[in-house]
Each structure stands twice: as C-alpha cells, then as structure tokens.
Amino acid sequence: MRIVSYNVNGIRAALKKGFLEWLQSVDPDVICLQEIKANEDQLDLSLFETAGYGHNYWFSANKKGYSGVAILSKTKPDHVEFGTGIDYMDFEGRNIRADFGGLSVMSMYLPSGTNMDRLDFKLKYMADIQTYLTNLRKEKSNLIVLGDYNICHEAIDIHDPVRNKNVSGFLPIEREWIGNFMESGFIDSFRHFNKEPDNYTWWSYRANSRNNNKGWRLDYGMVSRPLENRLKRSVILAEAKHSDHCPILVEIKSPLAPKGGTVNL
After folding, report:
1. CATH H-level superfamily of 2-252
2. Count of CB atoms within 10 A of residue 198's CB?
3. CA dihedral in degrees (151, 154, 155, 158; nearest 10)?
4. 127, exposed or middle or buried, with CB in 10 Å at 0-12, 13-18, 19+?
5. pLDDT digits (tens, 9 = 90+) for 77-95
6. CA-based Rg of the chain, rounded to a whole angstrom?
7. What is the reported pTM?
8. Are 203 and 238 in contact (CB under 8 A)?
9. Model confidence over 85-134: pLDDT tens digits?
10. Residues recognised as catalytic
C-alpha cells in the first residue's frame, strides 16, 4: 500500500494549481489531507472520483475555511472514524481514520502554537492525542498516523535550529513530546531510511525560503512498531508545489499470506 500525506493549505486552492493531475501521476492507494479549509458541500466530489478516488471522506472544522482533514482512497475502507470523540479536537476537524483490513490509517493535523493561547491548546492536544493513540493501539496495532505534526524533532529537521530554539514548532517541550511519542511505540518512517540533513516539508512564503531550502520538517508518517518489518520506503515529495508544505509518501509491504489463505492488510 502506497500512502501519501499532504497539508494542502486549502484544497480548493490546491485544485487550481494542478493538484489532481499531480495526484494521478503519483498514484497512491490512499492520500491523507490536512488543512483542507473546506466543507464537503463546497467541493465537486466527481473530480476526485474521476481521478480514481471514488471513496473520499471529509472531516471539516466547525469554523468555515479553517483546518479540516480528509482521506481519499481507491478502495473502500472497512470503517471510517470521523474524529476522536474529544470535543475540542473534533470541533477543529483534526483527525480522521480509515481501516483497511488489518491496517489502520489516520490523517492528523496537530495544532500550531502561534500565540500563548494556541500553544496551551497545542500542548493539551499533544497530551490527549498521545493517550488516545496509546489506547487505540490496543485495538489497532497496525496503525499509521500521518500528517502535519507542526513540530521539528531534531536540529537536523530545521534549517536554523539556533535562531528558532524559542519558536513554537521547535520548543524543547514540543521536541520532547514527539520524542516520547515515538518511544511509546511509533517509528518516524522517514528517518528510518534517511538520516541526511536538509530534508524539509514546509517553507515560509517569505524571503524566497523554498528556493533557498530554508525549511522545517513538520510532516511525518509515524508507523506503529509492529509494522517495522513491512516498511518498504518513506520519502519526501518535494517537487509538489501546491502548498507551503510538500507531501510525504510511505509504502507498506503486504504481509505474506499463509499457505492456502488470504492476505489481511
């Protein structure tokens, strides 16, 4: 299964920049979207169906034009979970999950901490989502949580770690949390394969940041430990330019079917 995650910074704006043509060229089985900034009734869903994604699920924020997540799939999931059941998260449309056999895929949009109020909100979300996912893994052990985490884990993940050390997204408390998140049972799939610097997924629109590759790695494909042996690759698709983020791709190998049996993804 080839899974893409992409913070599109507005799906309607991305569509005008050739998003669907790009999606068809990459041809993932599933794509997780964040920051869709649209309600389902504001979209022409036939466009996605024509592109091969007849199964598309949208979970928007209560506030129009804000936040929101989605999952688009070529095949119909066994189950789709809209939100977490935690009100303050779900009001902002930050989590959606689709189950495909024995594999569970979540699109997550973790808040940014743009000011003190939002930083407090982010820290509360971080604590609560970790508890939620710890409990979820007891039921869904083969879990992939993809999306915009709005955190750089290590100095290697940000272009200027010294001057950004007191900026939300690279605060010690945020970095500690994402480290603990991985220690709780998740693999940073990109770093599983690639230890090189200068690999980013977000660039400011200011100061020609993208052309100069002055970026941050904010987007992750976190894969639960039981899937480690099935990780095939994890890459950043930096050539896609429909947003201030770029997409990431995680590829999971199918397990070997038992003799005379069937594969359960």
Report:
1. Endonuclease/exonuclease/phosphatase (3.60.10.10)
2. 10
3. -30
4. exposed
5. 999 999 999 999 999 999 9
6. 17
7. 0.95
8. no
9. 999 999 999 999 999 999 999 999 999 998 889 999 999 999 999 999 99
10. 148
